[in-house]
Amino acid sequence: MARVEVVVNGRGYMVACEDGQEGRIRELAGVVDETLREIAGDRPSGSEPQLLLVTSLVLADRLQELQAEVQALRGARLGLAPAAPIQVPARGAAEDEAVVSAVDTLAKRIEDIAARLDRA
Hints:
Blueprint: E1 2-8, E2 11-17, H1 22-40, H2 48-78, H3 93-119
Antiparallel strand pairs: 1-2
Helix pairs in contact: 1-2, 2-3
């Protein structure tokens, strides 16, 4: 098992990986760092854990969009009709506030974990 140091948002992290995968891990970390910087821009942002969470959500969204595109292309190649889009029910303000509260709670938990890791 190899270990490689990557830098995201100016901070170094040691990551374990399979031997020979060091370059790929650095490349992936570069994508994360680039996306994080796009999100943060020049404006002051929240905490680093919250910024990393939002970056993860953006990357997960991009991944799902690409997976749907690949599935549609495969379906087209096989002559299959595209699946009907999933309808997401409208949410009210109370539900939106619950989502915001949950994200804030997760961000706080991530910050606490990061602080414990820094002390370790």
